[in-house]
Amino acid sequence: MAKQLKSIADEIALSCLASRTRLLGRVITGIYDDALRAVGLTSPQMTILVALEHTGGVQPGALCDALKLDKSTLSRNVDRMESKGWLIKKPGADARSHSLELTEPGRRKLTDAIPHWRVAQQQAEETLGKGGMETLFRVSKRIRGF
């Protein structure tokens, strides 16, 4: 039994997509977080700022769907970002709905972050290599739809 379990553990250690993608995510996120720290942003916050500027404003549920975030993760980040004045919650058609929009301070924060993002992007590209970048873009396009 112990020999069989060791063999299966070896197989999983060498081929598990979950552990490899989580490792990749931690490494790449670390690169961006290190670069963005200089302007007081995390990589998830940068992603939200970009998404809000890209869309012009969006309902939280749609943002969760597009970014594959759970509602509590988005809510925690939105609350912090709203308290810093980077975004606002605009009332929706009924009392239960609202949209998220970037504010001018949020746009300035995004503008300040761009040079740091570019440095991180270059480091991430070097880490992944050309083939890794192409594969990542192809797979994420299939998952996200764009």
Q: What would the keywords be for this entry?
A:
146 residues, mainly alpha, globular
Characterization of this structure:
The structure is a single chain. The chain has 146 residues and is mainly α. 75% of the residues lie in helices and 7% in strands. It has 6 helices and 2 strands, in the order αααααββα. It has a two-stranded antiparallel ribbon with strand order 1-2. A hairpin with a 6-residue loop joins strand 1 and strand 2 (98-102). The protein is globular, with a radius of gyration of 19 Å. The termini are far apart.
Mean pLDDT: 94
Q: Percent of residues in helical segments?
A: over 70%
Largest sheet: 2 strands, antiparallel
**Distance, first to last CA:** 47 Å
- State the low-pLDDT regions, or none: none
Q: Largest beta sheet: what is the strand line-up?
A: 1-2
Structural class: mainly alpha
Q: Oligomeric state of the chains?
A: single chain
Backbone shape: globular
Radius of gyration of CA atoms, rounded to a whole number: 19 Å
Number of strands: 2
- What's the total helix number? 6
Instruction: Tell me the β content.
Output: 5-15%
Give the H and E element order. HHHHHEEH
